[in-house]
Specification:
Elements lengths: L1 E6 L3 H4 L6 H16 L3 E7 L9 H5 L16 H8 L4 E6 L5 H13 L7 E7 L1 H15 L5 E9 L3 H13 L3 E2 L1
Parallel strand pairs: 1-2, 1-4, 2-3, 4-5, 5-6
Helix pairs in contact: 2-4, 5-6, 6-7
Length: about 180
């Protein structure tokens, strides 16, 4: 079984409070990749409350974003439509950069599907240098023998430079960069 992790393709990261032109540019490719993917798809949503600015993250990144129920928290419509077309799809809300629930769920899939174990994990989404790298490394820790790959053209970072740095760091940690 192959697993696709789609990280935080939400309005606030695309054209909202933390959006970038690079994030906007990957939306069609990410939607297409989801549609063509043959396997289990898991999407994450960065999820905060109204008290975000009082959190440890909010004190270091004082930009309100991805408040549960707000438009910025929602998945981009093109992404949501692509996910809705998948039979085997799950959405996980995560309160921080890396999702322990994502790691536990993928490990559970590997352990409970008999001979249909996880053979490969692909990661795409936003932001390469924060949540993509956190989740790619987390998935590698949960399933160290399973190849983890990141599709660089289906990711965008806070800046083009930090995107490239994150791809390089993941490569050093034996994550395949495609």
């Amino acid at each position: 079984m192959k697993v696709l992790a789609v990280i935080d393709m939400q309005n606030d990261f695309i054209d909202g409070s933390l959006g970038t032109k690079e994030a906007e540019a990957i939306v069609p490719g990410v939607a297409g990749y989801i549609r063509e993917f043959d396997g289990t798809v898991i999407a994450t949503r960065d999820t905060h409350g109204e008290d975000y600015l009082d959190s440890a993250e909010g004190k270091k990144l004082p930009v309100v974003h991805c408040v549960k129920g707000a438009d910025g928290w929602e998945l981009r419509p093109e992404i949501r439509e692509a996910l809705n077309e998948k039979k085997d799809c799950r959405i996980i809300d995560k309160p921080t950069f890396g999702s322990v629930e994502l790691g536990e769920y993928v490990k559970h899939l590997d352990e409970t599907r008999g001979k249909d174990t996880v053979e490969e994990i692909t990661v795409i989404g936003l932001c390469t240098d924060i949540c993509v790298i956190s989740n790619a490394l987390l998935l590698k820790a949960y399933l160290p023998e399973v190849p983890v790959r990141v599709i660089g053209s289906c990711c965008a970072g806070v800046t083009p430079q930090s995107h490239e740095q994150a791809l390089g760091a993941m490569k050093m940690c034996q994550i395949e960069i495609v």
